[in-house]
Amino acid sequence: MGSRETSDAIASAHTTFYSWSKLTASERSKALRKWYDLIISNKEELALLMTLEQGKPIKEALGEVNYGASFIEYFAEEAKRIYGDIIPPTLSDRRLLVLKQPVGVVGAITPWNFPLAMITRKVGPALACGCTVVVKPSEFTPLTALAAADLALQAGIPAGALNVVMGNAPEIGDALLQSTQVRKITFTGSTAVGKKLMAGSADTVKKVSLELGGNAPCIVFDDADIDVAIKGSLAAKFRNSGQTCVCANRILVQEGIYEKFASAFIKAVQSLQVGNGLEESTSQGPLINEAAVQKVEKFIKDATSKGAHIMLGGKRHSLGMTFYEPTVVGNVSNDMLLFREEAFGPVAPLVPFKTEEDAIHMANDTNAGLAAYIFTKSIPRSWRVSEALEYGLVGVNEGLISTEVAPFGGVKQSGLGREGSKYGVDEYLELKYICMGNLN
Ligand code: SIN
């Protein structure tokens, strides 16, 4: 598909907006709830499809189906709680009201690393608010998107309310940006593409929300519970083989615990099973494509040429194709690509630090600001550091923090707006002020 099909989809979304947005909140809620039920009753098939097209291990794929479905369930409920306001008037013969209304047609551009959840986290609140949507899934994972859309149709969500276009990505993107009928762009993906979409939205002054790249620090203090820190940093680093925007990208370890942490962490990483995602024992699948492997290789070469040392792995896996060995790199410093940019692969750089101030400084020394993790047993320190970190999400003694009930999103160049939670609907609503005068 290209510009013509995208324009057709926009036209269909635009026509359907007038009927979908006029339904009662309860009617939209029921349709979303049915979609949720259908996703759950087809979860094995969806997970299988996801593992086949994306490569993530089947257990993780099943986890993503539940995670993805949870946004539909949550926003089916939230649809009924989109309240306006009544403002105390400044003149006695007036009444001042605030209505919340859907923004209109939404263009949603989603990535391959969460082929279902990144769609439902956008489409769930959009449909709940009364918007209609044109989704462009990643060209690497279109099948999960189509399967989810088919289930939406079966649930009674009208064809025009949820449209999926795939194919020529630049043409589709341009058609969405240029259309005056598309009133909002929501995107999850790289910071570079996010900036282009933001610039491209300026011409038609669209509302924009962006969930972009991260460079998550995972700070392990001397006073951490080592078992909790190992479990949490392993989960934060190796989820989806390191291919998430919230993956720990730099593991900052305080000097007093560095050696002990490094040897326990290496042992834990050695236990990760690389292989075919359809095998139950596999915990690490392949990377998405050859370019992803080459990026990891470039980062490793850069780090070793500047004095880092490979403590484990550091090369392509013997399985070949796009499998890469789970890797631990020691003595990483802030002049290396591994420190400065997202590796998006199964590589854990260990960075030693001396003081709490040093750790905060190193953690914030980046344009990214999505997720950060800290491990400490000190309650005052966990407050101090959480508040000092320039990030949208902070995990304290926990490496897996995403949930439909909490706001997800970044600061600085990691994005704009929040997804999920009660705040997630704000991105799909406009406020309308109504002043009723001469009431006496
Ligand atoms: C992402 O990597 O973009 C999303 C991760 C999550 O929802 O936890």
From TrEMBL:
Catalytic machinery residues: 211
MF GO annotations? succinate-semialdehyde dehydrogenase (NAD+) activity
Reactions performed catalytically: succinate semialdehyde + NAD(+) + H2O = succinate + NADH + 2 H(+)
GO biological process terms, alphabetically, are:
gamma-aminobutyric acid catabolic process
Query: Which PANTHER family does this entry report, sorted A to Z?
Result: SUCCINATE-SEMIALDEHYDE DEHYDROGENASE, MITOCHONDRIAL
What's the source species for this entry?
A: Zizania palustris
Q: What is its EC number?
A: 1.2.1.24
| Family the entry assigns | Belongs to the aldehyde dehydrogenase family.
Kindly report, in one word, the top-level EC class recorded for this enzyme: oxidoreductase
Which InterPro entries does the UniProt record give? Ald_DH_CS_CYS, Ald_DH_CS_GLU, Aldehyde_DH_dom, Aldehyde_DH_Superfamily, Succ_semiAld_DH
PROSITE patterns tied to this protein = ALDEHYDE_DEHYDR_CYS, ALDEHYDE_DEHYDR_GLU
Tell me where it mainly resides: mitochondrion
Q: Which domain of life is it from?
A: Eukaryota
Q: How does it assemble?
A: Homotetramer.
Query: Taking every annotated instance into account, which residue ranges of this chain make up the domain Aldehyde dehydrogenase?
Result: 4-434
Supply the name of the protein. Answer: Succinate-semialdehyde dehydrogenase
Q: Which GO terms describe its cellular component?
A: mitochondrion
